Structure formats: C-alpha cells, structure tokens
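Supplementary notes (optional reading)

For those who missed the lab, this is the record we used. Protein: BlaI/MecI/CopY family transcriptional regulator. Length: 146 residues.
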Amino acid sequence: MTFELDISVFRPDRPGIRKVLGDLEAEIMEEIWSRPAEQGTTVRDIFEILYDRRRLAYTTVMSTMSRLAKKHLLRVVKQEQTYIYYPNYTQQEFVSQFVGRIVEDLLINFTGETLSAFGKQGSFTSAEQARHKLDEITRQRGKEGE
C-alpha cells in the first residue's frame, strides 16, 4: 500500500505511537491492531471496549476513527448500514513509516546536526547510512520537482 501518512505532530516526551498520535487515537489503533486485520472493526466494537475505561460518547469514538481514516491509518468499507474499519498498516509498518518520516525531516532540515548526532552514536555505519539516505532523498525530490 502506498498511502501518504498524515503525521504533522511529534511529541518526543510521549511514549510509543503517542509521539505522533493523540491518546485516544493511539488507544483505538492499538485495539484495532490487536485483532486480525482482515476481520475489520466497527465503531461499536471499539466503543464497547473503551466505554468501560473512559466513559466516552459513541460520537467521540466515531469521529476519532473517521479522523484516523483521513490520516490514512484506517480504510472504511460500507457494508449495508455499517462502516467497517480496516488498518492500512500493521503496527510495525506504521512505526517504520513515522520513524522514516522523522529521520527524513531531520536530515532535510538539520543535515549537519543530524549527521553529527549519528556520528556521535559511535557508529560510522549509521552516519554513512544517513548520508546515503540524504542523497537518496535529494535525488527523489529532484525527480519530483521536474
């Protein structure tokens, strides 16, 4: 799948996927990822699980799942009168995507500092890999601009 993830926030002080998702978004995605992907999930499924923990309104869960679909984390299929949500990524794929985006952003916006930080990690390989990644990003952006 080639969806462009909508990740516009990074909170370094938050744990795990909450670095890029809100608490409720992360909780919903964790519930969805805990199920077989091909099974699909309804708003009611998630609402019933979260209601005991958080006393949320059904509409809050519905609007949050809709927002996750707009961010391309979920896709929606309408079956009769019910909307079924499916993850576009496994949890590991999502983490890889957002880590890649963050590293790419650091390389583009803070090239010297990012390369220096990789070098200070004591791994010449990491710094060299970061330079290759920066070259690849630069080439790709050059092609897109043509």
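If you only remember one thing from this example: The chain is about 60% helix and 10% strand.
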